[in-house]
Specification:
2 helices, 4 strands, 30% helix
Length: 89
């Protein structure tokens, strides 16, 4: 269990997470499912995606209202395990 005092963030706060992956509909669905599993209020989440110039990859920026370091850690782990994900920043 992580103590929120061990982080530089003041919770709750808006926090962007970037995910890069293969440009397939299944990838976007998997990312949205991961978000839903870690963010209890989906109306506080902004999701923007942009395809690469060749159209092979897509970058997804997820901006959410983070409530704790544990929430962010869990979201990063879940996104890293999503099919098609190449990178989580």
């Amino acid at each position: 269990m992580t103590d929120d005092r061990d982080t530089l963030l003041d919770f709750p706060c808006r926090f962007p997470v970037k995910v890069m992956g293969e440009a397939h509909e299944e990838f976007l669905e998997a990312v949205e499912a991961c978000i839903a599993g870690h963010v209890p209020e989906p109306d506080t989440v902004d999701v923007v995606h942009r395809e690469s110039s060749a159209g092979n990859y897509v970058g997804v920026t997820i901006t959410l209202t983070a409530t704790s370091q544990e929430q962010l850690d869990g979201l990063y782990r879940a996104l890293g395990a999503c099919p098609g994900v190449r990178m989580v920043l």
